[in-house]
Design goal:
The protein is mostly helical. It has helices spanning about 5-55, 80-90; strands at about 70-75, 105-110, 115. It folds into two domains: about 1-60; about 70-115, no CATH class.
Length: about 120
Amino acid sequence: MAKLTPEEIEERKKAVWRRIAENQKIKKELMEERSKERSKQQAAKARRKLMALVDADVPPPIRCSRCGSTSLHAGDKGFSFINAAAGGLLFGAVGLLGGLIDSSQVVITCLNCGKQWIPGA
């Protein structure tokens, strides 16, 4: 084996470091390509899910007929003082229970304009 001079040793060291740098650069590029490919796959998957939702026969959201808002609240109608008063006049104390008639009926209220309506009516 021939003995290497200090210049040749330095030249070989530089060549090794260049190869290491090139390998790291190639590795970084491959990782970026894989990351882009994963992002594309995830985007395609999200598109497929969205299209599946669009293709499904999903009814449009309920809207207020006055203002068009979709911010709605559904709750029970509650006790009716008008029915209780009418029942009290006609039937006395027992007639006050007339205020409970239709108290479990669902009423939808628009949170934007305050309009109230009974579904299906």
